[in-house]
Inverse folding.
């Protein structure tokens, strides 16, 4: 089978989803006729252009394992068949697996594991931002690992893609990963992007403020709500020791000191 019609991860394994694959044959002279046989039945002919390697395209081959051979007819005399090669035609998509992810929800920096079950031996598994093993599957569970916030693993694309040796795919499963603290969108995005940043800050107006000791900075909270690019940001300092009473909107609160 030619590399161009041997689909899938390998172009030399004679496993394909192409139902009319091409095969290389040897011609001994121009005008000779090559007849392709699938399981002993004729499945296409080719007229040789000269001597050497040429290509013949088969008629439609059904799914399954088949024996492929060919003959060369010279001046009306057909040669014995060539040694057969085994070819598998597979046009069926892989089965849909099941998956579980832990921890879930997860936040940026968390190492997460997705266990994918129901993957046939020889099928490969991929999830954006994750590394899967064993890959291809050996018939048991496939374990995929990654770190939230790295390599594009952010919960926005959890598609599990199963690819069989013939190149057929199934991407109907999902890891279900939920990221509890996704990164904010870049410039030019539209719509609201609610985000709250909280950290301790020093504010003498807070009821628990102390100038020294472990509470040198008071237990007030600075909140900044990030909204769409065409809206104004809202900033607020709240005194957490006093029922979250507001200490003023727009207050410039320093980070941890």
């Amino acid at each position: 089978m030619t590399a161009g019609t041997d689909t899938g991860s390998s172009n030399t394994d004679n496993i394909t989803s192409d139902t009319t694959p091409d095969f290389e044959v040897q011609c001994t002279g121009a005008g000779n006729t090559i007849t392709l046989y699938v399981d002993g039945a004729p499945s296409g002919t080719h007229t040789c252009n000269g001597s050497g390697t040429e290509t013949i395209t088969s008629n439609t081959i059904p799914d399954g394992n088949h024996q492929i051979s060919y003959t060369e007819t010279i001046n009306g005399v057909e040669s014995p068949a060539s040694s057969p090669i085994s070819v598998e035609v597979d046009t069926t998509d892989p089965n849909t697996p099941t998956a579980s992810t832990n921890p879930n929800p997860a936040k940026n920096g968390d190492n997460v594991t997705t266990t994918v079950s129901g993957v046939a031996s020889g099928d490969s598994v991929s999830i954006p931002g994750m590394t899967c093993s064993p890959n291809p599957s050996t018939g048991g569970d496939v374990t995929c690992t990654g770190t939230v916030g790295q390599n594009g693993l952010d919960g926005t694309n959890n598609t599990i893609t199963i690819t069989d040796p013939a190149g057929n795919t199934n991407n109907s499963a999902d890891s279900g990963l939920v990221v509890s603290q996704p990164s904010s969108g870049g410039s030019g995005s539209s719509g609201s992007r609610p985000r709250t940043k909280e950290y301790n800050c020093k504010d003498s107006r807070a009821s628990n403020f102390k100038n020294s000791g472990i509470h040198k900075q008071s237990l007030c909270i600075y909140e900044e709500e990030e909204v769409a690019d065409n809206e104004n940001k809202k900033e607020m300092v709240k005194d957490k020791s006093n029922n979250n009473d507001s200490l003023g909107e727009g207050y410039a609160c320093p980070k941890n000191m």
Remarks:
- The chain has three domains: 15-89, 98-174, 196-249.
